[in-house]
Records
---
Amino acid sequence: MVKILAVANQKGGVGKTTTTVNLAASLAAMKQRVLLIDLDPQGNATMGSGIDKRELPVTVYHILLGSKQLKENRLRSEVGKYDILPANRELAGAEVELVDLQQRETRLKEALQPVASEYDYILIDCPPALNLLTLNGLCAAQSVMIPMQCEYYALEGLSDLVNTIRKVRAHLNPDLEIEGLLRTMFDPRNTLAQQVSDQLQQHFGKKVYRTVIPRNVRLAEAPSYGVPALHHDKLSKGTQAYLALAGELLNNAAQSAQNR
Ligand SMILES: Nc1ncnc2c1ncn2[C@@H]1O[C@H](COP(=O)(O)OP(=O)(O)OP(=O)(O)O)[C@@H](O)[C@H]1O
Ligand SMILES: [Mg+2]
């Protein structure tokens, strides 16, 4: 059964795209069939997967507006070994154009249906806003992965996101769950980061992934080569952390299948 995960946090620069790209590559390295959906007009996940966002005839924009089908317009990240539906700045217009369309929040969900069974994981990289694009991500997903930096205002921002998830659950996608909270760019020597991390665990308990993503320059460099970090420096701490996260996800999935 496919698992569809939205990687979301309305706060900018917390590591959503880094997580989506590196988790996709890590799951693919573990023989999982992965589709990455870039739902951000910045197109960072597209570029980070080795695909030039400037020269794309079809992007997620056309899929959301219904002028093209996903099945014929997926691309392959050869380096990452996963499929991708790319995005570029054209997608910024979708927000306005979608407003007048019917079922505007569930366009991505509908588009995914014909291909979903071909994958083990579908990862959706959401933009840094609680807008219609992110809503499409949350409606298409079964669960949300929330990357966050352990900073002073992080918990405050989290409550907005958790409220949005509650509303989506109430009105649009009753099955939506929080898959987990991921601590990113973590520096264990930073006392405040440690305190916020403790608070996070008090509030969210088991929902906080055991895997912590450290601050690691290899993760920041890899996109400039158009590759996931796994294919830039396999032994770096950042690469190893995302492999561990993929392992944790697979373990959790195996356990919940056993309990069923
Ligand atoms: N663990 C890490 N260590 C070092 N740098 C990181 C790490 N994770 C992300 N970065 C860097 O931090 C910046 C923001 O990361 P990223 O683009 O993944 O965040 P984002 O949440 O997707 O941002 P946006 O909200 O703009 O979409 C990037 O320059 C990225 O390379
Ligand atoms: Mg991003």
Note: The longest helix spans residues 237-259.
---
Amino acid sequence: MSTPAEHYERHLGPIYVWMAGGAEAALQAGSTEIEALNLPVARGAIVLDLGAGFGMHSIPLARKGARVTAIDSSIELLRTLTELRGNLPVQAVNDDLQAFQSHITEAPSAILCMGDTIAHLPDLGAVENLIERASVELPPGGMFVVSFRDYSVPLIGEQRFIPVRNDATRILTCFLEYEPETVLVHDILHERTSDGWQTRGSCYRKLRLSPEHLITSLQSNGFNVRREPGLRGMVRLVARAGRDLVRAVA
Ligand SMILES: C[S@@+](CC[C@H](N)C(=O)[O-])C[C@H]1O[C@@H](n2cnc3c(N)ncnc32)[C@H](O)[C@@H]1O
């Protein structure tokens, strides 16, 4: 069993961009998602991207004029982000996202935690603490956006084998093993080498977060929450700081 940081360092980091379909396609998908979100982020506004990876959302946001602080525990993914960002104002920060407040120098207009990053936190208490601290840092009208996989209803039998990506040289498959509060994610990589196919696996734990629980937690911290479909079957919660009407789109 690996921690998420070990899993990214030893297993996923080196193939993450490939897994996401290549940098160009992934940045295009991130850009489409940022456009769909239509965040009220003015030119020069500060945005925090928690668990930014290689910048799938940070880079499109910076192209729209935001100044982005991209926090991630993976040095390898931040190195890729630094290559891809060019001269865009994206600051790569290698830290635990739970320490995000120590990287705030100006009030952020938005805080993002996308692509199932939040499920990597150690427990539900850490998720609720993150939401509470985001609500403290965002001014009224500031946005907190989180997207994650709904593992609350377990897949059964062969549904738990998930083909992630394959091509002539790599096959990546994920197997899910459910526990009461968490899911063990086994990533199995087959890679063609000069000696033939080689297989390596790695396993880490993710939280089984229920969208309803997160919505309640966001609302109780004063967010106005919109629920909508995210990328690749994820749930996306778009939360605006400041108490007013709650609406559910999907
Ligand atoms: C599934 S990827 C999502 C990346 C990106 N947000 C996206 O949508 O493509 C999860 C990312 O969160 C990072 N991560 C996981 N736990 C973290 C933590 N506690 N602090 C900082 N980064 C973390 C991983 O290194 C990885 O880059």
Note: The CA atoms of residues 47 and 68 lie 5 Å apart.
